[in-house]
Amino acid sequence: MSIRITANARRRMVALTAVAGLALGMAGCGGGGGDDEKPKPSASASGDGGSQPSAQEGQEETPLAELKGTDGLLLQIISAARDSGGFVTVSGNLKNDGAEAVAIPAQTSGDETEVIKHGQSLGGATLVDSKGKKRYYVLRDTDGRPLTTTGLTTLNAGQTLPVFMQFPAPPADTTDVSIQLPTFSSGTIKISG
């Protein structure tokens, strides 16, 4: 009889411990209405209490380049940033300026079998350094997946989709490059950083 009582007591302790752990977890994630929940000032807020637009907000108004595609597609390049790891990340918006839904052309993925097998993407994009006479292709991971927006299918009329592409960085003294994407016009962009 004492074995049964001991087993029941152990089960109750385990259940109580689990409930207490869940309660603590929910309290840590949940919203107590304390002072800790006040919004923290952002790094972009000015000293007088007004806010300044972020760099990305300002760039959205004047893109680095606009590449026109088929059927009303438009690729607006917002930024091209060099990072310390030796890469350039190009960010922008793919927009359907047309009046009807448009399928993203399959050619934007490029023609490399390894890239195509991972689905529709912007893997066919290249950066061209005219000064250094080099072409830079979208980077791939160890499985051959392109380091770019993937899973592209259709854009409805007026729809905008944020996109990115990552390339090896040209030499540090190269800032102006041409960006090319199959079925789109090409454009010149300036690399920052």
From TrEMBL:
The keyword NADP does not apply. The lineage of its organism: Bacteria, Bacillati, Actinomycetota, Actinomycetes, Kitasatosporales. Keywords: Signal. Residues 1-20 form the signal peptide. This is Secreted protein. It comes from Streptomyces haneummycinicus. The keyword Signal applies. Transmembrane segments: none annotated. Residues 31-62 are annotated as: Disordered.
